[in-house]
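Problem: given the chain below (147 residues), write out its structure.
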Amino acid sequence: MKTREQLQQTLCDRLFWHTAERDDAIVAKHLFDHHEMDVVYAMDEATLFDSFFNYLQQIGVYPFLEHLDPQKQQRENIAFFKMTLVFLMKVVGAIKTIDEMSDLLLTDELLMSMCGFNAYQVKNGSCQRAYYYPYLVIVGSGERKGL
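Solution.
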């Protein structure tokens, strides 16, 4: 199973191959010499996806994504655009399984807010449908586990 650190490394490899580099020694030397720094950017998955989504907006991809209409979508409680952004994260992050997707993306409030979900939806889901399926068990933490 992919870990958060592996996800971060994959994202760095795929999204920031030429634009950013982490070098703690240079940062420390600059702070020692100048005692201040204009700005420091975190290089975590949220920062990488934020930059990636901004890039997609700048090159005009978002309007195409917003107008995707899967004609056969049966349940429309989640906008297709939001699902598209989540699956873009899955593909770019090289996340292979739904379990990994749940652990690394779907339970991360910051990443999900970037796709348009709020904290309540991240914690409780967007509907109660999963609670009615007999093959799912809700454990003490609210986590849904299949039997």
